[in-house]
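Hi support team,

I submitted a single chain yesterday and got back a structure, but I'm not sure I'm reading the token output correctly. Could someone confirm the output below corresponds to the sequence I sent? I've pasted both exactly as they appear in my results page.

Thanks,
R.
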Amino acid sequence: MNEVELLIGGKSVSARDRQVFLRNNPVTGQSATRAAAAKSHDVDEAISMAARAYPAWSATGPGLRRELLQRATDVLVTHEKEFISHMIAETGSTEGWASFNVMLGASLLREAAAMTSQISGEVIPSDIPQNLALAVRQPRGVCVGIAPWNAPVILGVRALAMPLACGNTIVFKASELCPAVHRLIGTAMQEAGLPDGVVNVLTNDPSDAAEVVGALIDHPLVRHINFTGSTRVGRIIAERAAKHLKPVLLELGGKAPLIILDDAEIDEAVNAAVFGAFLNQGQICMSTDRVIVDEKIADEFVQKLSARATALPLQDPSLGPTVLGSIVSNSSAERISMLVDDAVAKGASVTAGGNRSGTLMEATVVDCVTPQMRIYAEESFGPVVTIIRVNGDEHALQVANDTEFGLSAAIFSKNIARAWNLAQRVESGICHINASTVHDEPQMPFGGVKASGYGRFGGRSAIDEFTILRWITMQSGKRHYPF
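Hi R., thanks for writing in. Yes, this is the structure output for that exact sequence:
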């Protein structure tokens, strides 16, 4: 069993009251990790240490920050085998998905390192004689990062990489479902030589989540919060932060549409749908949840997609390589099955999969989905893709936008101008033409609209999130005042 302690002020420590909690393997039910269960007093200590480290870290030059983040990139990769082991044990992830997490996590750190010298300002012409007016970007201070379990290395690193590059210090709240994975990110930062207190990691019992998150948001020394997770929790965080007028970056749920127009290359669309719907068992915010296909080509598309889905290997990922691994918990698996059963009861048909053994569920295709079915509107977050048949481009657009979410989308058409015109009208923060809904790169502005959140991770956009813009002037000559 993995033993996990808090990281506070550069030291591995137990929770003050010595409490711990267990995270079990979702497939076997056996205990995978025993982790320290932080409470509000541990939150206070972590924030105090981050605040103590902030003056020196914020004054550190971009060259040294870049060097340390580059070193952290290398250290992260050396822990790849541990990350893979922890992800399989705690989340039921496949080896391939875990390895990809480490690779993209390293890329995120590398991109953040490159951005340390790109935090620039500008000179603004002033109407006052001999007055130099500057717009200056400065770090915010102590930032809180909260990341989920589904892409734990990618999203854990993303929660802290750009804040650190901008000169902030971090208190990172690990997911209760993968404490060992997230704590290992903190270990990598320490081993890379980041000063004590610059990165602090808290783990907590699920029953204490509201207390811990509330204490993080309410603390007067916290200046910014970034959160990736469910829309339900994101709303709670935004409302609580608003009481303190604290800025929040939210990347929340999705119900990504893959629109397939009648002139699409069907085999390519099938490839994108299989990847987008079933990577990591569909447990990605960008997962292809809805395939919106023109009725002229729907039969052929569904037949080919169902055949591909049926052939995907499924097993306990601890037994070896597989395409499909485990859903994160029994409760999640049961909810997904209920969504499928509800759709079938209301007239949909399962053309592939549908069977489940515990947290292991086949790749499932549900055809002829209508708005009366729960799965039409609710995020499935599992290895299930729905088919909605439409008549023409305008009908496809109406269905694509008929959701509270707006994170990622994709459109397939041989006519790029036709697809481009449609992409401009899709209500999403991200849209890909002739590619999967699942796509991320460190330098891209990543985020959603509507109930998928606000703000952007990635590249220069993240600089705006993790710095404040100040107006500073210097008067070099005497200034005239009217009295």
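A quick pointer for reading it: The mean pLDDT is 97. Let us know if anything else looks off.

Best,
Support desk
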